[in-house]
Amino acid sequence: KPKIEAKNIEYTYTSLHKGDIEASVSSTGTLEAINTVDVGTQISGTIARIYVDFNDKVRAGQLLAEMDMKMLQTALQSARANLAVSQANLNQVEDLHKRNKLLFEKNVISEQEFNTSKFSLEQATSTREAARANLTNALVNIGYAKITSPINGIIIEKSVDEGQTVAASFSTPTMFIIAEDLSKMQILADVDESDIGYIKDSMKVRFTIQTYPDATFFGKVSQIRLQPIEINNVVNYQVVIDINNKNGMLIQE
Questions:
Q1: How many CA atoms lie within 13 A of 46 on its CB side?
Q2: What per-residue confidence (pLDDT) applies to 202?
Q3: Of the residues 80, 215, 244, 250, which has the maximum number of CB atoms within 10 A of its CB?
Q4: Which of 98, 102, 103, 88 is nearest to 118 (CA)?
Q5: Residues in the chain with pLDDT < 50?
Q6: Residue 178: its pLDDT value, please?
Q7: pLDDT of the residue at 250
Q8: Residue 67, Cβ neighbours under 10 Å: how many?
Q9: Cα–Cα distance, 106 to 110 (Å, whole number)
Q10: Sign of torsion, CA 138 141 145 146?
């Protein structure tokens, strides 16, 4: 048997200490603001003015855009004219019914004539109320022509331009998306069903983004959603991770 030369043996000395064994779960997700609001228009028409752009900070109630008012003003004038006509007709029918009531009480006219005038009065009253409702609707539409911000925040999406026509027949078209607070963001990460059992609430998360590939950021699991999502025939569960973005570095994502 060959012998090992003692001079060829090297020893490495080290001290023993306790440490942590890390089991990591890798995933990808979308970084987004925690609370965003879609701002649209409830009426159809042409956009006359837009007062904000991407990344503009806005406050609640601030005017963002205005719709063209020509058709709305025409509808308002028509509604007012119809109300005036219906009111005049009601006044005439009301006077006639008062006269017929006196005549009926003196047995000068028949009950049928009296009931006919009563019906005409009820019909004229209903027509006047419908005209009032149309006027109110026209005024409401004029109010909708001014698009205002519902919250304090920042414009992160603008999908319309001046002169563009929008249709609100079936659904409210989105004109702007406003993020309420970009100092607090979240990641929606898709985790494979084989790894979801390792994820717990309040667990610390380490992640990177393409903008800063050499930097490491940290977050915390705030929610594990139970609704499964099938991606490429693999069942995933969505995990919500809260991020502190007070320094604003993650806004560019």
A1: 7
A2: 92
A3: 250
A4: 98
A5: 252-253
A6: 95
A7: 79
A8: 23
A9: 10
A10: positive
Give yes or no for a contact between 127 and 84, defined as CB atoms under 8 angstroms apart: no
Amino acid at 71: M
For residue 52, give the nearest of 65, 66, 34, 67 by alpha carbon: 65
Q: What angle do CA 197, 250, 237 make, to 5 degrees?
A: 20
pLDDT of residue 253: 41
Residue 212: φ, ψ to 5°? -125, 75
- Hey, CA dihedral for 4, 6, 12, 16, is it positive or negative? positive
231 — phi, psi (to 5°)?
-125, 115
HSE at residue 121, side-chain half, CA atoms within 13 A, is: 15
The tens digit of pLDDT for each residue in 150-199 reads 999 999 999 999 999 998 876 778 899 999 888 889 999 999 999 999 99
145, HSE (Cβ side, Cα atoms, 13 Å): 19
Residue 84: partners with Cβ closer than 8 Å, 6 or more residues away: none
pTM over 0.85: no
The encoded tokens of residue 68 equal 């063209």
At 238, the amino acid letter reads Q
Task: Output the six-digit token pair for 37.
Answer: 């609001």
